[in-house]
């Protein structure tokens, strides 16, 4: 179903490939990110929040029209609300999907892909997340976390140098990397660092992919 095997094997690859994934948008920073991606001829994946899509439908539409994959990060990003029950996770997915459909003007759109706010593993909602994973699967929704990052959620004192260093550390000796980045005003350094992030990965022989190539 919808590339389940591809998602299950996403961290395994004989060749070097990188998936840039942006959480929490769209935001006032998104146009800058999109401009850079266009300039660098790189397609990314955006895990959007339904509540943000509702506020910025035109930006959401631009993400889609420029060939990036739009997936769901839920609607609210309020953990107590999302993780109230397994059903509320599915509800958040569906609500976000409805907003994406409206924004891009494609009524049958369904990304079949969800990223759990805070990640799937651990935390005080671990049991709910595990149950939600099964419920999502029954509704043909896959989920993905990440295996590399720039550390843009690790400190309030972000710098381009810090992000490039964390990227180097977390991608070391990995052929297939799903890289966690954030699309939010508080993380605007990520947009500033993006040309160098892309350049570092290119220089190290990574080819850029997005989820259109995983979920067919």
Describe the structure using short key phrases.
9 helices, alpha/beta, 216 residues, 6-stranded parallel sheet, two-stranded parallel sheet
Structure description:
The structure is a single chain. This protein is α/β, with parallel strands linked by helices and 216 residues long. It is built from nine helices and eight strands. Helices cover 44% and strands 14% of the residues. Strands 1, 2, 3, 6, 7 and 8 form a six-stranded parallel β-sheet that branches. It has a two-stranded parallel ribbon with strand order 4-5. The longest helix is centred in the middle third of the chain and has 19 residues. The protein is globular, with a radius of gyration of 16 Å.
Distinct helical segment count: 9
| Rough outline | globular
Low-confidence stretches: none
**Rg calculated over all Cα atoms:** 16 Å
Count of individual beta strands: 8
Mean pLDDT: 97
Quickly give the structural class.
alpha/beta
Q: Main β-sheet, in a few words?
A: 6 strands, parallel
Residues in β-strands, percent: 5-15%
Distance between the termini: 9 Å
Proportion of residues in helical segments: 40-55%
What are the secondary-structure elements, in order, as H or E?
HEHEHHEHHEHEEHEHE
Layout of SSEs?
Blueprint lengths: L3 H5 L8 E7 L6 H11 L4 E4 L1 H6 L1 H9 L3 E4 L6 H4 L3 H19 L8 E2 L11 H13 L3 E2 L4 E2 L10 H12 L4 E7 L5 H16 L3 E3 L7
Parallel strand pairs: 1-2, 1-7, 1-8, 2-3, 4-5, 6-7
């Amino acid at each position: 179903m919808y590339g389940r095997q591809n998602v299950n094997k996403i961290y395994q690859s004989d060749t070097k490939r990188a998936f840039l994934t942006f959480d929490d948008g769209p935001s006032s920073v998104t146009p800058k990110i999109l401009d850079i991606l266009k300039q660098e001829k790189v397609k990314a994946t955006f895990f959007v929040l339904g509540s943000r899509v509702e506020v910025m439908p035109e930006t959401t539409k631009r993400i889609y029209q420029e060939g990036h994959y739009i997936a769901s990060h839920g609607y609210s990003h309020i953990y107590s609300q999302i993780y109230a029950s397994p059903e509320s996770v599915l509800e958040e997915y569906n609500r976000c999907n409805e907003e994406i459909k409206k924004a891009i003007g494609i009524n049958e759109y369904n990304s079949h892909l969800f990223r759990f706010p805070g990640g799937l593993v651990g935390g005080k909602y671990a049991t709910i997340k595990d149950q939600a994973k099964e419920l999502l699967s029954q509704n043909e929704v896959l989920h993905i976390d990440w295996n590399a990052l720039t550390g843009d959620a690790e400190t309030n004192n972000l710098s381009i140098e810090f992000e490039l260093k964390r990227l180097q550390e977390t991608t070391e000796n990995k052929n297939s990397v799903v890289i966690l980045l954030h699309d939010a005003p508080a993380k605007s350094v990520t947009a500033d660092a993006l040309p160098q992030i892309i350049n570092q990965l290119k220089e190290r022989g990574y080819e850029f992919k997005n989820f259109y190539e995983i979920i067919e």
